[in-house]
Amino acid sequence: MSDTIAAVATASGVGSVAIVRVSGDNALDIAKKVTKRETFSPRYAHLSSLYNQNDELIDEAIVIWFKAPHSFTTEDVVEFQCHGGSIVAEKILETVLFYGARLAEPGEFTRRAFLGGRIDLTEAEAIAKLIEAKSDETAKILARQMKGELREFVDDVREKLLRAVAFAEVTIDYAEEDLPDDIVNNILHQLEEIELKIGQIVSSSERRRGMIEGFKVSIVGKPNVGKSSLLNAMLGYKRAIVSDIAGTTRDTIEEQIRVGSHLIRIIDTAGIRDSSDTIEKIGIERSVEAIEQSDIVIAIFDVSRTWDEEDEQILSLLEKSGNNKEIIVALNKIDLPKKLDTKKLEQFNPLQLSQDNKAEQIFSELEKRLSKMAQGDELLLISARQIEAVKRARSAISQAKEPLLMGELEIFTFHLNDAISAISSISKPVDFNDIMDKMFGEFCLGK
Ligand code: GDP
Ligand code: ZN
Fold it and tell me: N or C: which end of the chain has fewer CB within 10 A?
């Protein structure tokens, strides 16, 4: 027996319809009191007047009863679909609370759906991310996962691994001699296929992680090349919707900017916000750090000064940076007489920036790079937790191959069981209380 919870399930403010959702054993009773209606048919849209506890009319609304277990939470659920705007919904909520429901905690509906077995953890995670999805494309991917795409993949891999373990165990128990070569090769082949597939999913998820969190962009270059000027131009650009996030937990400040259908986060490890009259101590270490942390690096060179040791260092960092990164090289101050020898930068197809065209050029280049990075039909792992689990599975599978070839079947089984528990933890973690508290706690109310 669980208590009955309630919340406004739609975003506050705008919208023509607002939904108040009630879930739990008393949901139907409460609905009867609010509507003064005696009977409800499950899943039927009843047009009803709603009254508060003083018998005053609140609204005309559509009321739907989802009879347990055929509801999102698997409990009795009643939804009041009332006129939009927050006032009506708030009044309904107050009345529902008056009749004995309790205000739901963030994510509590989804938590109940999970506990009721309606959704697994991959689906719950997708819902959590979907609520704050940064773009349409991202929302589509998440919606597919909500419907179980990742769970199906996990189930498929788990089943293949279980079959391999079963083969080995039968052989350990019954066979006198070693596993026949063709069976070994067959298992090996299957493991290698899984390894390959997992590898693709991991690298494409890491490349596309910005679709969930926003792509991280850094601006690097020696002092006075024009980093702050570029950032300011970008922030002032007409298409950019900007929000300021004062980092509370980290020591850097970041700016979020919308670029086309994507979100970028400018990470400010190099102190690009410093005003130009303070001396910037960028140091090469800070550039190293900035490059490491970002998905896209914008490297700026000043054409009005001659090439020096610092430019050389930045160049070598760019040449060394990982292949999962996009590098944009920009030659700045092309309105001034050119002194820089740019030959070494030609490999990067540099952009040419002057005082008045910085933002346009950078944004159009960013859009190209972003759509390239977001490309891909692979399954997307949407949290560090999922990526960790899949990597653990891959490494266990890879460790199982050698013992299989050597006929050391106990060791083989040991590693495969490790892989199975890692992959299973994605949808059904053994100890999920911590994960649940953390995950559902980040939800907004009413979900
Ligand atoms: P940072 O140290 O890399 O952040 O460089 P700033 O953005 O502070 O710029 C250094 C100086 O270069 C400032 O005086 C800017 O006004 C100037 N500057 C930046 N971009 C341009 C440009 O495109 N053309 C010219 N002529 N000056 C620029
Ligand atoms: Zn600066």
Answer: N
pLDDT per residue as tens digits for the range 251-297: 445 777 888 878 888 886 655 655 444 444 556 777 888 888 899 99
Determine what percent of the chain falls in helix, strand and coil, rounding each to the nearest 5: 50, 15, 35
Backbone angles phi, psi at 60, to 5 degrees: -95, 130
One domain, residues 222 and 366: yes
> Whose alpha carbon is nearest atom 17 of ligand 1?
226
Is residue 93 domain-shared with residue 156, that is, in the same domain?
no
Q: Is 245 annotated as a binding residue?
A: yes
Burial of 9 (0-12, 13-18, 19+ CB in 10 A): buried
- Range of 110's domain? 5-117
CATH number at residue 149: 1.20.120.430
In this structure, are 338 and 282 located in the same domain?
A: yes
Does residue 442 lie in a domain region?
A: no
Query: What are the pLDDT digits (tens) for 3-55?
Result: 999 998 876 555 678 899 999 999 999 999 999 999 999 999 999 999 999 99
Tell whether residue 79 is among the known ligand binding residues. yes
If one counts every other C-beta atom within 10 angstroms of the C-beta of residue 405, the result is 12
Share of the chain above pLDDT 90, in %: 45
Taking CB atoms and a 6 Å cutoff, what residues make up the pocket around ligand 1? 221, 223-229, 272, 276, 280, 332-333, 335-336, 353-355
What total of structural domains would you count in the chain? 3
Assess contact for 439 and 124: CB atoms under 8 A: yes
CATH code of the domain in which 70 resides: 3.30.1360.120
ipTM value of the model?
A: 0.98
Q: Is residue 437 part of a domain?
A: no
243 strand-pairing partners: 256
Which amino acid residue places its CA nearest to atom 10 of ligand 1? 224
CA of 332, closest atom in ligand 1: 23
Residues 260, 217 within the same domain:
yes
What atom of ligand 1 comes closest to residue 232's alpha carbon? 7
